[in-house]
Amino acid sequence: MPKAFSEQERETIRAQMREKGKKLFEKHGLKKTSVDELTEAVGISKGAFYLFFESKEELFMEILEQIEKEIQTSILEFAIKPKANARKNVSDMLKSFLLTWDAYPLLKQFSKTDFDYLVRKIPAERAMLHANHDEDFTNDFIKKIKREGITVKASPRVISNMIKSLFFMGLHREDMGTAAYMETMDVMIDLVSGYIVGE
Q: Where in the chain is CATH 1.10.357?
């Protein structure tokens, strides 16, 4: 039986698992990182690991959502350029959202294969919870651009799906090659931005 931890110990260990886990996932990838490596890095038993997470995929998901939250917060604090037109402002916001992912090695290496594997491994209700967070971000994104005086012509559902489609295109970066991916992403972001503002 793994030892019981105090609330403070639980918070500390969970934070360490996110920190150490992020480094291990960046180094080895999701599939090749083992629970043994994760527990060794934090200094807990394998049995204790399952007091915190049902699987390594659950830990990965928590790390992924922590990074997403940081990026989303930066988007919602993005400074609109008063002299730029609506399409350009929305385009700049989406670019800063999607291209910021490159600053995070974990996200930059995250592929379509990794995504499919993660979806297979996490419980359906966990995936649904994540989808709800995505919807919340879309709603906050729409409120942000409306506050800036930008008229939104597309429905929230369509905007959410278009942003997701840009994300999914990023999962095929390796298939496209970096230069082609960047060029295509620029075009797609401009088209999506134009649709959102009705231009």
A: 55-197
Mention every residue, 6+ apart, whose C-beta is less than 8 A from residue 131: none
- Condensed to tens digits (0 to 9), the pLDDT of residues 99-145 reads 777 778 888 788 888 888 998 999 888 888 888 888 888 899 899 89
- Give me the chain's average pLDDT, please: 88
Residues 149, 89: contact at Cβ < 8 Å?
no
Which listed CATH number (3.30.450, 1.10.357, 3.30.460, 1.25.40) goes with 55-197? 1.10.357
* Category of 53 on φ-ψ map: left (φ > 0), alpha (ψ -120 to 50) or beta: beta
- For 77, the token pair is 């604090």
Q: How many residues does the chain have?
A: 199
Residue 151 has phi, psi (to 5 degrees) of -80, 130
How much of the chain exceeds pLDDT 90, in percent? Answer: 46
